[in-house]
Amino acid sequence: MLLTIEKLIYGGDGLARLPADAHGRGKAVFLPFVLAGEQIEASVTEQKPGFARAEALAIITPSPHRVSPACPYFGQCGGCHYQHSSYEHQLEIKKEILRETLRRTAKVDLPCQIQVHASPPWNYRNRSRFQIKTQPSFAVGYFKLASHELLPVEECPISSPLINRAISAMWQSGRAGKVPEGVQEVEFFANADDSQLVVELYCGIESRRAAVRAWAEELRAAMPEIAGVAAFRRATSGMPGSQEKLLSVGVPYLTYETLRAAYRVSTGSFFQTNRHLTDGLVKVVTEGMSGELALDLYAGVGLFSTALACDFHHIVSVESSQTSTGDLAYNLPSNGEAVQATTEQYLARTENSGRAGKGNVLPHILPTPDLAVVDPPRSGLGERVVRQVANLDAQRLTYVSCDPATLARDLVPLLAAGYRLEQVHLVDLFPQTYHLESVVQLVK
């Protein structure tokens, strides 16, 4: 059948419509690797009551923005979604998705332009995670698109050059039969200048400590840029999916240098993944901000906190991960306070104890900050936390989001609480993918 692509939606698919039925508008059809305005010869692969899925068989009328993908695995690999588009057009796609999502869900017609911060489109990732299998033969790679079947890959053009060298080293070791049984995933994290990396191994319960340790030592000997290796094993008790540390070889952290600060980032800690835009993101969040007290929620290792500490008398940084909180405490200067708690737990002090006056940091009373920064996971703040954040009554609120839908949802109660949009930024941390990082600055 012939389909015309109306637009691209969040998630990477194009939207087309089947011919109208007796009830009027045609059923929505979603298909990957297409661009708006293209005419596509397509085949329906799945029918649902409200929509259908299809695959493109041929591009009848290509978009002027269509380009040849740079990666030989594109279209099979589930990692990238936009390599068939010029990078300039990718930015336009994301900007329009952000604008439309805010308009549709938050009922916001933006009072300002979306400021776009572009990235070099290739070799930008400082952290990449790969699947591993050792039987019946070795392979390392990503999951195939929309499946849990391993696609072997020997290069990844969105990962840093050093990570690509590590992929090659992994293949060399695997083909020599040296990878121990039970190693299921590997994650590489490289420092800012791509001169060192740490390796995280994720293992099944059958993994043996001695075998994994010997292999980790071999990896370090074969590739001197590996500063350390940490291995984690699926825990036999505790929460489902929980991990226990199996071993650590070498240095268990990297020092990540930025223009504003140097950060200790341990294995298991979170850090932003675009090595070219780390400084740009920090600048967007912190530039022009100053005052008595800043509150950094979902603080990680202190990427924003450490920079904000230069311009605030005091900063309170809240992080739930024990590993990241350890790095956070190490990275913060003397006017910073690291708190290990979930954001909900910490903000509950407001509901239970009230607030102190501006700038007064008391043990059991949450003060009113001049600035609150929130950088939640993809699920967003959620109903309770967004209410708690609104009740902080901070004069300025900066929301760093990796999902426009949850951002728009959370903006509804924040705008109702008296905040107004001052700036909206699209910081493209994830070129070639549909993932969309945005920063919204609100003021009362």
UniProtKB/TrEMBL annotation:
Alphabetized InterPro entries for the sequence: MeTrfase_TrmA_AS, MeTrfase_TrmA_CS, NA-bd_OB-fold, SAM-dependent_MTases_sf, TRAM_dom, U5_MeTrfase_fam
Gene Ontology molecular-function annotations: rRNA (uridine-C5-)-methyltransferase activity
Annotated S-adenosyl-L-methionine binding sites: 272, 298, 319, 375
SUPFAM superfamilies linked to this entry: Nucleic acid-binding proteins (SSF50249), S-adenosyl-L-methionine-dependent methyltransferases (SSF53335)
TRAM domain: residues covered: 1-58
Database matches in Pfam families: TRAM, tRNA_U5-meth_tr
Biological process per Gene Ontology, one example term: rRNA base methylation
Catalytic-site annotation from UniProt: 402 (nucleophile), 402
Enzyme Commission number, as recorded: 2.1.1.-
Keywords: Methyltransferase, S-adenosyl-L-methionine, Transferase
Keyword S-adenosyl-L-methionine: yes
Family (UniProt): Belongs to the class I-like SAM-binding methyltransferase superfamily. RNA M5U methyltransferase family.
NCBIfam families per record: rumA (TIGR00479)
Protein name: 23S rRNA m(5)U-1939 methyltransferase
Organism (species): Candidatus Sulfotelmatobacter kueseliae
Organismal lineage: Bacteria, Pseudomonadati, Acidobacteriota, Terriglobia, Terriglobales
